[in-house]
Fold this protein.
Amino acid sequence: MISRERTPQIITTGEIKPDPRLPFAERLNIIFRGIEAVISDTSPDAVVVEGLFHAKNVKSVIKLGHARGVILLAAARAGLPVYEYSPREVKVAATGYGAAEKIQVEKMIKNILSLPDNIGNHACDAIAVALCHHHTNKAFSAGERV
């Protein structure tokens, strides 16, 4: 989560990682409850998500779509607006290049925000999406949290 200030400030980072051995429905429930807890604990003003991308592994994309669905549901239940950005928009905002590799995005996010090396790639991805919103959404006011 970031706060919009002149320079964005990291409020919190983390990952919700259900045990992959659990049934898929239970993993989605853990993600949903985890997102609800994050929303409750941090009181964001909006939720920002990355749009789906095309991939060779259709099964993975479908599972990702389900996970995004429970995230969107948690945001809707909390009455929060949801903003969505394409992977290309996120890469352009982070690196200036829409076809940047994941590692390039991660390095740039760590560099821009002076983050330690132990911040994981999923957290960097989430921060990149929030920064994309920070840079592109003019309705996003100073002090708001996403």
User: Anything to note?
Assistant: The chain has a mean pLDDT of 88. The chain has one domain: 2-6+14-136. The two ends are 5 Å apart (CA to CA).
